[in-house]
Amino acid sequence: ALPRDLEGVRVLISAGGTREALDPVRYLGNHSSGKQGYALARVAAQRGAQVTLVSGAVSQPGDPAGVEVVHIDSARELAEEMTARSAQADVVIMAAAVADFRPVGVAGTKIKKGAHGPAPIELTTNPDILAGLVAARSEGRIPADTVIVGFAAETGDDDGGVLDHGRAKLRRKGCDLLVVNAVGDGRAFGTEDNTGWVLAAGENGEAGTETGLPYGSKTLMASRILDQVAAALPEH
Ligand code: C5P
C-alpha cells in the first residue's frame, strides 16, 4: 500500500504541452505526452493529496481518477489558471512543456498558401510561468511556505553537464525543487521510462541537495519526486 503522507495536502500540477494558435486550424507546440505530470497527479491523489491538474495537450487515455482536471490550450491560459489557483495550493508542480514563443497575431481565417511561398511567422515571448509563481510568492500573493517545483529537460555530454545546467536553472528560476531529466538520444520524451535527479535549493546560504531518481517507470519517478516534495513541506 502507498503511504498516505500527502493526506489533505493541496497539490496543483501542470502537464502536457501548450498550443499557440496561428489561425483557426494551426498551432505551434512542442512534444509532450503528459505522462510524467499525469503520473504525479495520480500518485499524489493515491497518497491522499487533494489534486488539481491543469492539462494542456497530451496523449493520455483519459483524465486520472480522483483528480480535478482543468483543460487549457495556450501558455497564457495556463499562466492564468496556475496563477489564480496557486494561492490555494500547498505544492505547485510545473511539469507542463510551455511554448516559449507564440505568434504575434492569430489570423481570423485559415492562412492561404502565398503566391510567393510561405509568409514569415512573427513570434513574441510567452511569460515564464514558473518564474512568475516564484515572484508572486516573494510578493506575498502566494503563501510563503508554498513549495514550488520546476522541471528541466537538459541535454549534456555526460551527467555532469546535465546537472550543471540543472543547478544553474534552479538558481535562475528560484523554485524550491527542480526535477532534472537527461534528454536527447531518445530519452524521456514519450517513453515509458525516465531518469534524472531532484535538486533542492539550499536554505539560508546552505548548499542544496541532489537526489538521484531510479531508472524506471514514470509512476516510480512520480513516487520518488513526491517523496522529495513531502520532505520539503512544512509540518502538516
Ligand atoms: O527554461 P525551461 O523551459 O527549461 O524551464 C522549464 C521549467 O519552466 C518547467 O518547469 C516549465 O514548466 C517551466 N516553464 C514555464 N513557463 C515557460 C517556460 C517554462 O513555467 N514559459
UniProtKB/TrEMBL annotation:
> Quick one: which pathway?
Cofactor biosynthesis; coenzyme A biosynthesis; CoA from (R)-pantothenate: step 2/5; Cofactor biosynthesis; coenzyme A biosynthesis; CoA from (R)-pantothenate: step 3/5
Query: Might you give the EC number(s) for this enzyme?
Result: 4.1.1.36, 6.3.2.5
Q: What protein family does this chain belong to?
A: In the C-terminal section; belongs to the PPC synthetase family. In the N-terminal section; belongs to the HFCD (homo-oligomeric flavin containing Cys decarboxylase) superfamily.
Give a yes or no for keyword Flavoprotein in this entry.
yes
Kindly state which keywords UniProt assigns to this record, in alphabetical order: Decarboxylase, Flavoprotein, FMN, Ligase, Lyase, Magnesium, Metal-binding, Multifunctional enzyme
The residues listed in the UniProt record as binding CTP, with positions renumbered to this chain, are 100, 110, 127-130, 151, 169, 173
Tell me the name of the encoding gene. coaBC
One GO CC annotation: phosphopantothenoylcysteine decarboxylase complex
Cofactor binding, note field: Binds 1 FMN per subunit.
Q: Which part of the complete sequence is present? A: 185 to 420 of 420
Recorded catalytic reaction(s): these are: (R)-4'-phosphopantothenate + L-cysteine + CTP = N-[(R)-4-phosphopantothenoyl]-L-cysteine + CMP + diphosphate + H(+); N-[(R)-4-phosphopantothenoyl]-L-cysteine + H(+) = (R)-4'-phosphopantetheine + CO2
- What species does this protein belong to? Gordonia hirsuta DSM 44140 = NBRC 16056
- Tell me the function of this protein: Catalyzes two sequential steps in the biosynthesis of coenzyme A. In the first step cysteine is conjugated to 4'-phosphopantothenate to form 4-phosphopantothenoylcysteine. In the second step the latter compound is decarboxylated to form 4'-phosphopantotheine. Catalyzes two steps in the biosynthesis of coenzyme A. In the first step cysteine is conjugated to 4'-phosphopantothenate to form 4-phosphopantothenoylcysteine, in the latter compound is decarboxylated to form 4'-phosphopantotheine.
For this chain's UniProt record, which GO biological process terms are given? coenzyme A biosynthetic process; pantothenate catabolic process
Residue ranges of domain DNA/pantothenate metabolism flavoprotein C-terminal in the record: 6-231
Please give the start and end residues of each transmembrane region: none
Tell me what this protein is called. Answer: Coenzyme A biosynthesis bifunctional protein CoaBC
Give the required cofactors.
FMN; Mg(2+)
Tell me the GO molecular function terms: FMN binding; metal ion binding; phosphopantothenate--cysteine ligase activity; phosphopantothenoylcysteine decarboxylase activity
> Looking at the record, which segments are called Phosphopantothenate--cysteine ligase?
11-236
